[in-house]
Design a protein that fits this description.
The protein has 335 residues and is an all-alpha fold. Helix content is 74%, strand content 0%.
Length: 335
């Protein structure tokens, strides 16, 4: 597997996922769900944000699983469970606790108890740490070596979703340590792992590379135009479509050479993505706790998400650059 090629495709997917996450956050004020700042409901942005929400984080977790699988199988890393836990505790749990404590102290809608359940947007870091912890448990159960086959991967996906749905629908409705979200996103991680293991796309016939873009567009359209199904089944179908989109994009991008002119920009955004994620939502919170800005974005809902995207992308990315530049700060964003 060509090292440069692999990082090209993964870098593009990570930047795409990060862009979708920032776009989703830019619309949260307009989808009625951001209750902490009296959000309003705009049907257009509600629809777009619901579409992005199916794909963005699943793609990010898929990428994490792919990289973990590649490093584990082809680079002989993460062979000891303690290595995984230590590495991810530093890169995920430490920033979560640090910034989560600040959020609990500053924002009135957060409480210290929320740190156990995933405080604010930082729940993703706690969830991802849980995904890696679950992976370590599987390593231990398999004599410190994951022996995944295609069938086992599919079985884990199905069982994981069913366990998540049954347990958290009928037995326990809480989400301490983001266990619910861990079970929901774990299949995306495993699919990424399996894709790395089987080197997906390398042995496909030529016609597959021609048809995959059309299949991907169809899947995007399927998620956009929600089919009327029972809620649990609708969520499953749309999530499976998101998995398929991740695989399709990985295969398509593996056949594309990134132009040298844009490679530095893509690599830089990828390098700063952790800090961008952490600071992005905080920038939004600052905007909407300023009454005059809150009112302005209420009135200008057509251009609001675009302006919020700029606010939530470029200043946080600059902050991430500064934090990554200095070692005494970089630890707080997983550097």
């Amino acid at each position: 597997m060509e090292k440069t090629k692999r990082f090209d495709e993964i870098s593009i997917m990570r930047v795409l996922a990060m862009t979708m996450i920032v776009a989703f956050h830019s619309m949260c004020f307009y989808n009625g769900k951001w209750l902490k700042v009296n959000a309003i409901m705009i049907p257009l942005w509600t629809k777009v944000s619901a579409f992005l929400d199916v794909i963005d984080l699943n793609m990010f977790v898929f990428i994490s699983g792919y990289l973990y699988g590649y490093l584990y199988i082809f680079r002989n890393k993460y062979r000891h469970p303690s290595e995984v836990i230590r590495n991810k505790a530093i890169r995920l749990l430490l920033p979560y606790c640090f910034w989560g404590s600040i959020m609990a102290a500053v924002w009135p809608w957060n409480t210290w108890g929320r740190l156990l359940y995933g405080i604010g947007h930082l729940w993703f870091l706690l969830m991802l740490f849980g995904v890696f912890t679950l992976t370590v448990l599987l390593q231990l159960l398999n004599n410190q070596r994951i022996r995944f086959t295609g069938r086992l991967g599919i079985l884990l996906i199905v069982l994981g979703y069913l366990a998540n749905y049954i347990f958290f629908t009928y037995i326990y409705r809480g989400d301490i340590f983001c266990i619910n979200k861990v079970m929901y996103y774990f299949p995306a991680f495993m699919i990424g792992y399996v894709c790395a293991k089987v080197r997906v796309g390398w042995m496909l016939p030529n016609w597959a590379y021609i048809t995959l873009p059309f299949v991907t567009v169809f899947l995007f359209a399927f998620i956009w135009y929600e089919v009327s199904l029972p809620y649990g089944l609708a969520t499953l179908v749309r999530t499976l479509c998101a998995y398929a989109i991740c695989i399709d994009l990985l295969i398509i991008l593996s056949k594309v050479t990134m132009p040298d002119g844009i490679r530095p920009a893509i690599m830089e955004v990828e390098r700063l993505s952790m800090g961008l994620y952490i600071f992005n939502q905080m920038a939004m919170d600052l905007v909407f706790t300023t009454p005059v800005l809150h009112r302005w974005f209420e009135l200008h809902w057509v251009v609001g998400p675009f302006i919020l995207f700029v606010i939530g992308f470029f200043p946080p990315m600059f902050l991430s650059y500064l934090f990554n530049k200095y070692r005494f700060l970089s630890w707080s964003i997983g550097g």
